[in-house]
Amino acid sequence: MDYIKKLSPFIAPYKRYAILNIICNVFYALFGTLAMVSLMPMINVLFGEGKKVTSKPVYNGITDLKDYVENSINYIITSTTENHGSQRALLYMIILIISLFLLKNLFNYLALYFITFLRNGVLKDLRNAIYNKVITLPISYYSEKRKGDTIARISGDVNEVKNSLLAILELIVKEPLTILFAIIAMFTISVKLTIFVFIFIPVAGLIISRIGKSLKKQSNKVQEEQGVFISTLEETLSGLKVIKGFNAEKKFNDTFNESTSRFYHYSNVLLNRQNLASPTSEFLGIVTIAALLWFGGNMVLVDQTLSGGAFIGYMALAYQILTPAKDISKASYKVKAGNAAADRILEILDTKSVLEDKPNAIVKTDFTSDISLNNVSFKYEDDLVLKNFSIKVPKGKSIALVGQSGSGKSTIANLVTRFYDVNEGSITIDNEDIRNLTKHSLRDLMGLVTQDSILFNDTIRNNIKIGKQSATDEEIIEALKIANAWEFVKNLPNGIETNIGDSGNKLSGGQKQRLSIARAVLKNPPIMILDEATSALDTESERLVQVALENMMKNRTSIVIAHRLSTIQNADEIIVMQRGEIVEQGKHNELLEKNGTYKKLVDMQSFE
Questions:
Q1: Cα 588 to the chain's mean position, in Å?
Q2: Pairing of strands 424-429, 581-586
Q3: CA–CA separation, 210 vs 226, rounded Å?
Q4: Which residues belong to any copy of the ABC transporter domain (predicted)?
């Protein structure tokens, strides 16, 4: 249960509920034991075995407590029987038993009532913490991880931890206290019989612990496999068009079926181990009860050292131990499963971001001079994508990056926005290394339009407002007009209130791209980064958006990554890249006159 220490920051805000739960469980265990003990005087009344006490007993201190309580009950029974008959005495005993069972169940409900706030509170805070971690970890983290596995951790694993929290409190408070109070009561009835019971407890404990030894390992396998098939499902939904277009349904179906088959196998092993706990502990308990019947029966019938009422009360207390012992074995398995789930959750929460802001990071609010890439080298894995790369983008100038796929153009956009850090060299804004700035203030200076139009399942208004939450409807419409998107948005049934579906799939590729451009326009940052911003537009839309972009980029610093060279002919400088290095640079006409790589790219596109 060491993970409880690790999760203590999430438990601490709700510790008052844990304390109230513990207090209620103490009373639950106490009244549960008293309810069983109260059976003894009732049986004595029924069979006339009670010791007659005619004078009111005197309390002589804690050492005399047992005799005082017993004599007091017998005195009440004796006086009630003499004055009102044995039926009245029996009625009083029944009322006492009902009252004790009522109190027992009332405190049981209150214990569960308070623990609900603890469990659901920890569940909420854990999910919030993981989600916060998910959006703060660098993009590079997710290139190595399955998205479905992360989803499984934030849903299933967190839920497993929630369930184990109740099990832990049962394991360390509720059930042990129930057993402890029952054993104390059993000792007061018969020391000899209780010692006999203790012979069986270690044996039962050893057998149950052996069953649950590998439970954490099995639970971990189940949770990992859940991540695999959720990943497969997520990838299937994202790539449904490709799967159907290439008739690959069978391949993906087989992959999913293999994962669910493994999940089926691991779950069967895990659940069968858990299911073994209850019948095993119950059988061992019945064996103990049977031994008690034989040994205790001798004490009643042969030795006559124990009354019938005391023996039946003792058997009730022994059964009182049996149920919590069974629950403890179940709870211990839940704790092991929760431990495995907590390990997976903490793996995410403990992950250190390689792009953390420095303790004294600068908050930059303006852009005055230039952006410079100084001898930058970068690799995603083994091979360098950029090699000793240097460019300078003065304020107000537009720089275009062109080249074949894989030449490193989009990598520059990733580095300038600090989605990744350079391996060598530096990137500066106004001569300040961007690693010395807060990521938030750096990205506040930039507007980004990506090659893939990333939109969300929400209204057009909320998608556009992501960059500027305070924007008015008039500002949103103006941004849509600049991006040449208003012409189709105004004709939609609900205008800017129209929901565009998952990933914006209710719209065409060109419409999605224009909304992405409108989003960047609304933010109105001093630096624009356009990564293939017009790639998804038809020729007519491209021409109109290009004019809009040129108007928007006036007096604004722009880094334009382009595949279609027609869109960047008016750039202040064109950088031609090949395998992460600059092979040519200059204006459009200058590069054409050189008759080099750029001229070849233009000629190739003129035949498209």
A1: 52
A2: unpaired
A3: 26
A4: 371-604
| Confidence bin at 64 (pLDDT 50/70/90) | low
Residue with tokens 């000629």: 603
Which H, E and C letters describe 527-556, residue by residue? EEEEECCCCCCCHHHHHHHHHHHHHHCCCC
Residue 245 is predicted with a pLDDT of 66
Q: Cα–Cα distance between 460 and 45 in angstroms, integer?
A: 79
Residues 6 or more apart whose Cβ sits within 8 Å of residue 432: 362, 364
Write the Ramachandran bin of 501: left for phi over 0, alpha for psi from -120 to 50, otherwise beta: left
Please report the sign of the dihedral spanned by the C-alpha atoms of residue 418, residue 421, residue 425, residue 426. Answer: positive
Q: Are 74 and 49 in contact (CB under 8 A)?
A: no
Beta strands in 368-499 (DSSP E): 370-379, 384-394, 398-403, 424-429, 432-433, 446-449
Give me the sheet containing 446-449, strands edge to edge: 446-449, 527-531, 557-561, 398-403, 573-578, 581-586
Tell me where in the chain the CATH 3.40.50.300 domain(s) lie. 363-445+571-608
Q: SS3 of 487, please?
A: helix
Average pLDDT of the chain is: 79
Assigned CATH class of 2-349: mainly alpha
The DSSP output letter for 352 is P
Cβ atoms of 449 and 500 closer than 8 Å: no
Whether 465 and 449 have beta carbons less than 8 Å apart is answered as no
- Dihedral over alpha carbons 181, 182, 184, 186 (to 10 degrees): 170
Nearest CA to 251 among 235, 267, 263?
Answer: 235
233-247, 381-395, 460-474: the lowest-pLDDT one: 233-247
Residue 477 near residue 465, CB atoms below 8 Å: no
Sequence length of the chain is 608
Q: Where in the chain is the domain with CATH 1.20.1560.10?
A: 2-349
Question: pLDDT at residue 103 above 90?
Answer: yes
Give domain 363-445+571-608's CATH superfamily.
Answer: P-loop containing nucleotide triphosphate hydrolases (3.40.50.300)
CA distance linking residue 23 with residue 469, whole number of Å: 48
Question: For tokens 């042969």, what's the residue?
Answer: 302
